[in-house]
Amino acid sequence: MDDKDFLLSLIREGEHQQQDFKYRVSDAQKLAKSVSAFANTDGGRLLIGVRDDGNMSGVRSEEEIYMMHLAAYRYCRPEASIKFDTYHANGRTIVVATIPPSDRRPVYALDDMGNLRAYIRIADENIVASPVHLAIWRESQNTQGAVMTYTDSIRKILKVLQDQRLPLNHIVRRSHIPRYKVIVLLAHLIRFRVVQWEYTNQQFLFYQS
Predict the structure, then answer these.
(1) What is the percent of the chain with per-residue pLDDT over 70, rounded to a whole number?
(2) pLDDT tens-place string over residues 61-84
């Protein structure tokens, strides 16, 4: 398979959980969001020089390739692993940036205000990770406490979640448990597959498995 056929096979997949199109790279900080999202989820690839409609516009300059490196190595904390491959089709250069899932989650991206935010990839969108996701990643690094214990606080949360899907703030209000503690307990319950989450109407909802 030559470069053109390979690129067309990728483009036909469209944008999805593990693939995104980038027409141009003019801002390394914005690109870092995509790198963070892929690294924190299932990994993925960026087709740089491809428009949203799938047309190949090409990478215009070496400066754009430099921006890609900045996104991974200067604007992500910790540095994200990223592999760049260059392909040529129809007289245009397309760069495929492949980002594997990180084993050091969360990978943060530096925003315009100098703040670090972690992103996750949901369908074809990069979404700011919730506090519960941050706690899930901390929980996954904890080799201790691998036993599920049903405390009074956990029972309260499960009672609140009985037969309904709720956002974090509603769970806090209804359980009368401090927010920081609800975040930690939800992460623990998700780790043991007692609770699950979904992203609906631009908010994270939690529910019993």
Answers:
(1) 97
(2) 677 778 888 888 889 999 888 888
Measured in whole angstroms, the distance separating CA 101 from the mean position of its chain's CA atoms is: 9
Domain 3-128 of CATH type 3.30.950.30: yes
The upper half-sphere exposure of residue 186, i.e. CA atoms within 13 Å in the direction of its Cβ, equals 30
Q: How far apart are CA 130 and CA 196, in angstroms?
A: 14
pLDDT: which is higher, 193 or 66: 193
Quick one: pLDDT at residue 122? 97
pLDDT one-digit tens code per residue, 129-155: 999 999 999 888 775 656 778 899 999
What are the residue ranges spanned by the domains of the chain? Answer: 3-128, 131-208
Cβ count within 10 A of residue 132: 23
Cα separation of 127 and 105, whole Å?
15
Q: Give the three-state DSSP class for 164.
A: coil
- Residue 68's nearest CA partner among 89, 47, 37, 40 is 47
Give SS3 for 30: helix
CA 135 distance to own-chain centroid: 15
Residue 51 has which token pair?
A: 């428009």
- Looking at domain 131-208, its CATH architecture is Orthogonal Bundle (1.10)
User: Whole-model pTM?
Assistant: 0.91
Of 127, 126, 124, 5, residue with least CA distance to 56: 5
